[in-house]
Amino acid sequence: MANKVYNIDFSTDDSDDESSLEVYKDISMQSDLVEGTGFISRDVNVQAVQNSIRNIFTWIVGERVLDPEFGNRLYQYLYEGLNNFNIELVIAEIRSCVSKYEPRVTITELRNVTTTDDADDNTVVIDMIYAIKGLDGQSFTYRYTAQKGK
């Protein structure tokens, strides 16, 4: 087995301007499983929250050993066929997961942007529009796309 190589970058910007204020912090781990290399860096503010949201949508409930309830159950809806009722269940699951595991976020809208072609492939596409508490009131979008079998 190849040794894993990780580069760690925790450098900071020492500027004194107010826009560099670090309200939220997180660690970002990016790895190449094939090559056995990775990169660990520090995320702040928007990037930290977006990293957390990506984790919520990436992990399935039960996968995280130290927090087996972390993650989502969105995969289960893909095998039930897409209809208005199931899409509402997907939206409810997204709202539940994000509110439980990401208190720094206020969801302003969950929008079904699934097209007819997507529905034929049993794919669901939801845009989550959100604001980050404590930051300047900007709006951000996370697009959740899931397809049966992928």
Q: What is the average of the pLDDT values?
A: 76
* Total number of strands: 6
Secondary structural class: alpha+beta
Task: Examine the coordinates and then state which fold CATH places here, giving the name of the CATH topology.
Answer: Nuclear Transport Factor 2, Chain: A
Q: How many individual domains?
A: 1
> Which CATH class applies here?
Alpha Beta
Question: Low-confidence spans: pLDDT under 50, at least 5 residues?
Answer: 1-19
CATH architecture: Roll
- Write down the secondary-structure element order: EEEHHHEHEE
Shape label: globular
Query: β content, as a range?
Result: 25-35%
Biggest sheet statistics: 3 strands, mixed
> Looking across the biggest beta sheet, what order are the strands in?
1-3-2
